[in-house]
Amino acid sequence: YHERVSIIGALRPNSAHGINADELTLAELCQQQGYATAIFGKWHLGDRRRFLPLQHGFDEYYGLPYSNDMWPRGPRGEELPADSPKREQPKLRMFDGNEVVDEDITGEDQMQLTRDYTRRAVSFIDRHRDRPFFLYVPHNMVHVPLYVSKGFEGKSGAGMFGDAMMEVDWSVGEILAALKRNRLDEKTLVVFTSDNGPWLNYGNHAGSAGPLREGKGTMFEGGYRVPCVMRLPGKIPAGTECRELCATIDLLPTVAGLLNVKLPADRIIDGRDIWPLMTGEPGAASPHEVFYCYFDNELRAIRDERWKLVFPHQSRTLAGREGGRDGYPAQYELQTVGPTLYDLDADVGESTDVTAEHPDVIARLTAAAEVARDDLGDSLTGRKGKNIRPPGRARVRP
Questions:
Q1: Which residues of the chain have pLDDT under 70?
Q2: Is 243 within 8 Å of 228 (Cβ atoms)?
Q3: Using one digit for the tens of pLDDT, what is the confidence trace for 233-286?
Q4: Residue 311 has what DSSP assignment?
Q5: Alpha helix (H) residue ranges in the chain
Q6: Is the separation of the CB atoms in 136 and 45 below 8 Å?
């Protein structure tokens, strides 16, 4: 959980904190086993040198150190009005390794991001076809502001968001083709997923959460439940679905298990090995009894496979209004939600409170939430967690 490692929210440019050097990253885990490692894309765990990827297990890095909207420009790269507070933001920088290679990324530069990351990824595969490798490609798209290269402008027929998604799809195809060309596709685990649901107030520049409630920035299902596709021929059965509860925090212990590596015993690792789920092992069930829904130090909800208990808090919403257009967002409003209980098996859209019918479920999830508050804290109830670890801190310059 991000609460565990004290990385709360999206780190801003020049943040004084970032990932702690004591934390074990997936890249470090693989690097220690002789794997070549690379990241091409968005980092977002601190942009000071000590927080950058090369200090945390990666041999190669090319990309932006934070979100592509953290810049002093408008959504099309235009200059902002003199009274816009965003004009005070630092310029968007491109890193290659530990060095800044472009001090001022423009809209024209952003049009090439997906292609540039893909070229780097394919080159890395070609260069390391004779040794094991870990490759991480966190595309900036489809985060706003949206950009595509000339070859994908208007190509999808689904607007700018569709074009950007289509180019990401092209990128996946290029990476899979590189694996196949190098005869690695039958022995390479590929995982494609996202970090959060759609940023709904951006309207036609956002995706859709389908039947799920709300989107990014909330702890309703539309905020944090995301698609995930995995591929490993001969191990992961083709064309199958897994509906058990799991999360991206499970990838590190799963890979550790595949590499037969023991994780550090001196720290809590929240993820669990989900290899039995991935391979469709008969009777395999989620290794998580519950999942904590934290946002900005607040334990906003807790859920298990079926039930979700939402605690009273303020949550953003469009309240049925349409989102913005063409890169300009609509304004959210705040609503007070909870306490409510939802049966996600019958009501994935979280529309019907069934608190009165299930006091036993309420009691069980409430007790589990108390464990979370004791462990990780909860600003909604004024609790400080006993088992949180500090972030890394930047040196204070005299």
A1: 396-398
A2: no
A3: 999 999 999 999 999 999 999 999 999 999 999 999 999 999 999 999 999 999
A4: P
A5: 26-31, 107-110, 113-127, 159-181, 221-224, 251-258, 275-278, 359-376
A6: no
